[in-house]
Each structure stands twice: as structure tokens, then as C-alpha cells.
């Protein structure tokens, strides 16, 4: 014990190790775990497990208080929870589980420490792979660096290495060496558990022995009372035996005929059963062919979809080319727009210069106008002065003439007055006209100034509008560039998707080729099977016609039909169960172990039952011998009574003669008396004869007494054997009931597995439906994508139209610049500019309205485009998910193909095993021929031996059929299991065991049959002793001596028996020649 216990330093190192530090970091209060005993209690480990799985399956964890049984229960619940989490949520198989008994009983031993490390390793693997793994990873990151590295190594032991935990996802990538090492470890564990089980069974057996002794004593008393009753019945039935013997001889001939007919009918029934099995197998193959054809049709549909995808990919490539061309065009247009933008900046600078020049010209115009007004005023003044001077000259000339004519006083006054008045009137008129002209000039000046100001304001407004348009166009340019980048990213995504689709298409084409090849092979096999089916149907019709001959055959047929229905039901149940066994391999392993142990127990019990049957037969034989001995004893007793009567009669006669037996007289006197009387001489002669007869009878009596004692000893031994057999029978019945209960449990588990398989098939169908709906959605999305592309093309055309309008606007700007250069000629071209301005304004308003409408349309298109891009991204995500689902399905398909190949290999092995079994059966038939020839030689015991042997042979055939059915059922189960190598070896072992059992049974039957014949031969002879019989049996124990005896007799049997044997051998050889078309499950 001290060598197995761990030292304190080892325990301290373990507590300071990375696993315990991680466990302490997960606890809310790490100070509670003070020493190793607290850890070995299991409560803190369960507390950490509750952080991983808040709702575990098993929750019975209680403080142990250093109680080993409670500690074992705690760790058992923790291990069960960890195992269920690995199997159900993480889909992984735990290969190495910690030993709960060692942890519970000896936690401080070295093995206990190793098992505790393994438990904490498995708990760490659960924590890292559970849904709450982020919290645990953050806690691991908070630990020191050395412990982090150590924990990473520990996690790799669980996740990457396949020695402790086997992940079902990475089963294909696991190397064969690792799998072989795992299988070896499991085999060692199995052997260890078997040894422990045997030790426990050996401990149980002595306790069972005491209870058996009491039970045997009670049964002995019951058997003795039964023996007395049977003796009385035997005496009564011995009288009826003589009468029944005559009837037996009469019925033997009829029985022989009936036996021959029965053998023929049995052979036909067996061949019919074999044909029916083959027909069922052919039907299953046909159904499988139909399934494969439906799958091929589905793949063909997928091929059409792939062709559509190909065309669609080509269209997308063309669209991508168009997009590239449009992108290049847009880039060129962008470069042009940038140049134009630079040109507009230059134009704006020139416009500012022109504005300054216009202001200077306006100032010069104002100065010129002022100068004009001054000149006009001077001109008017000068014209007035000139006019007044002319008037004065005219007046002076006229006054001179008048003065000459009239008197100078009165005339001069009137003319001067008139001239002054007229001059004043003209001056007033000229002033009025001057004022009017000035007002008109001012109004003209004002109108010209206002018109030029309005023109400048309008030009500024147009400039602002054009700048806004330029900004809008730049925004549209940016949007279009962003769209171009988006389209480029989409194009790259589409290219990757197209590549993926091409790869999947190529894979599907390869799979379809493989499936087509398989379908061709299956069609060929189907044609062959159809021919065989037709032949079998013809044979079945012939068998049906033959089977309608007798009433007994009809009864057998009804029984066979019921059995076949039950077999079909069992087959269907087994097939459905075998399908469900794929995903529950862990349960199967445990069930297989139990099954192996149960099969061993069943084989042992079958052997015990055979022994019991042999002992029962021996008991019957001994009873028959006992009856014969009893009859002989009763005859001998009667003879003894008669002899005693004779001796008494002789004594009486001697007394009458006067010679007493007890008188002791002299011999001479007696001789004289005897010789003197002739009567005495006659009596003496008679007496001598009687004495001689008495001596003989006494010898016979002694022999009979010896025989009686031996028979009594045999009876006592037989009674003891009978009681022992009854006890064994009761034990077998109890074991049979236990096995029936275990079988019910296995069937219940099997039904649960069936339900799981049904749910999995439903899920598979739902996934197929979802996949088809996704394919339809992809088609709809592709059509929407086409529509979006068409709309994009229309938007591009509108954009090109806007570009043209922009160019026309730029041309108009150039025209405006040209007009700004010609501002010096404003007065001459003022009217023309007004008309042009009005035309341009109306055109501009129209363009504005069109541009606003186009902007609204563009905004609507942009919103639709965004919605479509969002829907496209969602659909791309769904597409990716569907692609993942397709890849997973392809992986499953490859797995099923591997399983199919393994099944074909196993089928070939089964065919070889079946041929070997049929060869074994032919050997058995040859032995049967030899036994028949020997049995026919013995005329007295021929019929009884033939009946016994036919019963034994029928039993052997039934056992062989049952074993074949069990093997077929087992191989049907093996079809769906992944671990095929293990199953093959198990199947081969089963076949070997069946062969051994068959050969042993036939050898036993030969021994027992030959011994029965010898005993019956010896039983009739009452003179021979049992020791001679035993010595002869000892001489005939070996099979070689027995065969020499068999061949010593006549070699020629009757013609009817030879015909029967030839029929049976032909049927069995036909079975052997026909290829086994049955596949496993």
C-alpha cells in the first residue's frame, strides 16, 4: 500500500499545477479549497461544471464527509455529466474515462492522482468547447504565462489528440495507428473487466452452493415419491405392452412410408424457404435499385440546374466585361469633367476680370454722359445766342428801313417791342424743348443703367445656377465612382462564387459519373436477379403444387407462413434499428459488450441444456433397462418360490419315507436301508436330480441377486442424477428469465434508437426541402439581379444624356464669355441680347425642371439600389450557408460510399463463410450416409434408431438455421456501423463458433446413438454382466473404432433410403451452388 500511495510532494505539485490553478480561478472563493481532501470531495469540481452546464442531467452531489461510498457517487455523477455533455452537445466520444472507484476509495494513491488529472483534463476540454467558453478563456488569459502555456498543452491533449477524446467530425483525418492503439486500449479494458467479473462470479458461487443443497434434499424426497408412483404405473403398463407390440409391428411399415414422405416434404419445404429468403433479398435489392434511380434522377435535375448556372456565369462574365468597359468610359468622363472643372475655375476668374472692366466702362460712360450734358448745354446756349444775334441783326436792318420811310419815334418803339416779345417767346420755347430733351436724355440714361444692372444680376444668377449644377454633377460623379467601387467588389465576389460553383459542379459531375457506373452495375445485377426471380417463382409454383398433396404439408405451410411473417417483421424492425445505430455508436459498444457476455452465457446454457437432454435420454434408457431388470427379477422370484415349494415337497416325501434330513445316524445303516428299499432308491435318484436343479437355481439366484444389487445401485445413481438435472433445469429456467428481461431492455433501447433514426430521417428530408427552396430563391434573385442591371443600364444612359446637356451648357457658357467680350458694342447689340437672354432663360428653366425630375428619379433609383444591395448581401449570406450545407452533404455522401464499399467487402466475406458452412454440411451429410448404412444393417433396432437420428438431424438443422439467421441479423446491424474492421472479426469468430458447435453436436449425436444401440443390444441379454458392456463401450469410445464398426456391416442398404439420401444431398448442393444474394441489413 505504501508503494502505491503518492507522496506529499507529488500531491503539492499537483495542487500547484496548471489544472488546479485553473479550477481555483473558476471558483467564486478560491480560499475554500485548502487541501487535496477538499478537491477529492468532488463538490468544487461539480461547482465548476455547473458554470459550464447550468442544467446537468445528474445532480446528486453531496458533501462526502470522508465517506468513500458518497465520494464514489459524487464522482460517478460528475463523470456521467461530462460524458453526456461530450456525446450530446459536442458530438465527441470519450475513449478514456477516470476510474471512479479508485478516486473514491484511494484518492491519495498514484492511480487516484492520475485519474483526478484525467477528470480535470476532461472538465477543461468541456469548458473550452462549451457555449460559455469566452468567459473561461478570459479567465485563462488572466493567469500567469507559464500556467497559460501548460493549459494550452492540456487543451491540445483533449482537442487535437484522439487518444482521450475522439471527435466524430475529424474521424476521417485520424491516422490508423492512433485508431489501432485506441482499439488495443479498449480490448485491454475489456479483458480487465472480464477478469473482475469472473472473480465476482467465483465469490458468488459458494454462497449459492449451500442454498442448492437444501433445495436438492427437498427435490430428492419428491423424486422418490414420483419413482414409487412410476413403478406402479410400469407394472400396469407392462400388461398393455404385449398388446401394443403387435400393433407396433403393423404401424412400423406405415411409419416408414410416412417418414420417407415427410423427409421429401421437409426437403421441399426447406428449399421453398430458401427460395423465399432469396426472393426477399431480391426484393430488397430491387427497392435499393429504385432508390438509386431516384437519386440519379435528382442528380440529373441538379445537372440541369448546373447547366443553367453555367449559362448564368457566362452572362455574368459578359456583364462584368460591360461593367469594365463602362468603368473605363466613366473614368475617361471623370478625367474630362475634372478638366472642365479646372476650365470653369479659369472662366470664373475671367468673369471677375470682365466684371471689373464692366464697372470701369460704366464709370467712363457716366463721365461721358456728364460731358455730353455740358456740351449739349453749351450747344443750346450757343444756338440761342446765335439765334438771338440773327434776330438782332434782322431787327436792326428792318428798323433802319422803317426809320428811313416813317418817322423815327413811333416806329422804333413798336419794332423793338415786337422783336423782344418774339425773342422772349422763342427763348421760352427753346427752354421748354431743352428741358424736354434733357428729361428724355436722363430717362434714357437711367433706363440704360437699370438695364445694364439687371443684365449683370441675371448673369450672376445664371453663374450661381451653373456653379450649383457643377457641384451637383461633382456629387453625382462621386456617387458614380462609389457605385463603380461597389460594383467592382461585387464583381470579385461573383467571380469567387462562380469559381466555387464551378468546383461544386465538377465534383457533382464526378459523383454523377460514379453513380452512373453504380447504376449500370445495379441494372445488370437487377436483370440477373429478375431472371433468378422468375426461376424462383417457377420453382415456388412447383413447390406450391407439390405442397397441396397432404393435410400435414398444409399445416406446415401455415406454420411456415406465420414464421415468415414474424421473420419479415423482425427483419423490418432490425433494418430500422440498424439504420438508427449509425449515430449512437457509444451505446452500441456497451450493448455489444453486454451482448457478447450474454451470448457466452447463452452458449454455456445451451451446452448445459444439451447435457441435460443427453442425461434425460440416458435416464429414459436406464428406466427402460430398470423395467426389463424388474421383469426378470419378478420371473426369478416366481422361479425361486416354485423351487422352494419343490424343496418342501421333497422334504415331506423324505419324511414319509422315514428319512429325516436332520438325523445324524451312521452312514452304513442309512445305506443299507436305502439299498434295501427300491422306493428309497427311486426317491434318492429323484432327490439327486432335485438337488442338482437346486444348485443350478441357487447359482441363478446368486446371479440375479448380483444383478438386483447392480440395478439398485444404478437406480440410486440415476435418481441422484435426476435430482441434479432438475436443479440444473431450475437454474437454467431462472437464468432464462433473467436473459428474457435483459432482452426486453435491449429491445427497448433498440426502439429508442429507432425513434432517433426516424427523427434524423425527418430532419434530412426537411433539409432537402430547404435546399430546394433556397435554389428557387437563388433563381428569383438572379432574375431580380438581371432587372437591376437593366435599370442600371437605363440610369447610365440618362447619365450620358445629362453629360450631353452639361456639354451644351458649357458651350453656352463659352457663348456668354464671347458676349462679355463684346460689351463695348452693348448699345448696338442690346436688343439682340435681350431676345437671346429670354430664349436662354426659358431653355434654362426647362433644363432645370428636367434636371430636378432626373434628380428625383436618380434618388428613387439610388434608394432602390440600396435596398437591392441589402437584399443581395442577405442572399449571398444565405447562399454561403447553403454552400456549407451542400459541402456537409457531400461529406456525408462520401461517408456513405465508404460504408457501401465496406458492406460489399463484408458481403464477399459472408459468401466465403457460407460456402465453408455448406462444405461442412456436406461433410455432415456424408457422415449421415455412413450412419444410415450402419443403422439399416441392424434390423431389430433400425426403426427406433432412424427415428432418433432423424429427430437429432432435424434439431441440428434447426439450430443451423437459427444460427444462420442470427449471423444475418448481426451482419445487417454491422452494415450501418462505422467500425467495420472490428465487426468483421466478430462475424468471423461467430461463424467459427457455429462450425465448432455443429461438429461437436454431430460427434455427440454419433456417440450417443452408437452407445444407445450397444446398450439396447446388451439390455436384451440377461446373462451378460454390466462390466462386459462397459469394457466394450470403453473399447468403442474413439471415433476411429466407431467408424470401423460402422463399415464392418453390410454396405448395401434398401433402394428407398438411397433415393431419400440422394434427394437431400441434391437440395443442399443446389443451395450451395446458388450465389448468396443477401446483403447485410
Considering the chains and any ligands shown, give keywords for the structure.
1081 residues; coiled coil; cytoplasm; mainly alpha; disordered C terminus; 21 helices; single chain; elongated; Actin-binding Protein, T-fimbrin, domain 1
* Sequence stretches where pLDDT stays below 50 over 5 or more residues: 404-413, 660-667, 978-986, 1018-1058, 1071-1081
> Architecture of one domain in CATH?
Orthogonal Bundle
The overall pLDDT, averaged over residues, is: 71
Q: Please give the largest β-sheet.
A: 2 strands, antiparallel
Strand percent estimate = under 5%
SSE layout:
Elements: H1 8-16, H2 18-26, H3 36-41, H4 43-52, H5 68-89, E1 92-94, H6 100-105, H7 110-129, H8 133-142, H9 145-159, E2 165-167, H10 176-405, H11 408-547, H12 551-580, H13 585-657, H14 667-676, H15 678-821, H16 826-937, H17 942-976, H18 980-1020, H19 1026-1035, H20 1039-1048, H21 1055-1073
Antiparallel strand pairs: 1-2
Helix pairs in contact: 2-9, 4-7, 5-7, 7-9, 10-11, 10-15, 10-21, 12-15, 12-17, 13-15, 13-18, 14-15, 15-16, 16-17, 16-18, 16-20, 16-21, 17-18
What does this structure look like?
The structure is a single chain. The longest helix is centred in the first third of the chain and has 230 residues, at 176-405. Strands 1-2 form a two-stranded antiparallel sheet. The model is unreliable at 404-413, 660-667, 978-986, 1018-1058 and 1071-1081 (pLDDT under 50). With 1081 residues, the protein is mainly α. The chain has helices spanning 8-16, 18-26, 36-41, 43-52, 68-89, 100-105, 110-129, 133-142, 145-159, 176-405, 408-547, 551-580, 585-657, 667-676, 678-821, 826-937, 942-976, 980-1020, 1026-1035, 1039-1048, 1055-1073, and strands spanning 92-94, 165-167. The chain has 21 helices and two strands. Among the domains are: 8-172, Actin-binding Protein, T-fimbrin, domain 1; 173-203; 768-882. 89% of the residues lie in helices and 1% in strands.
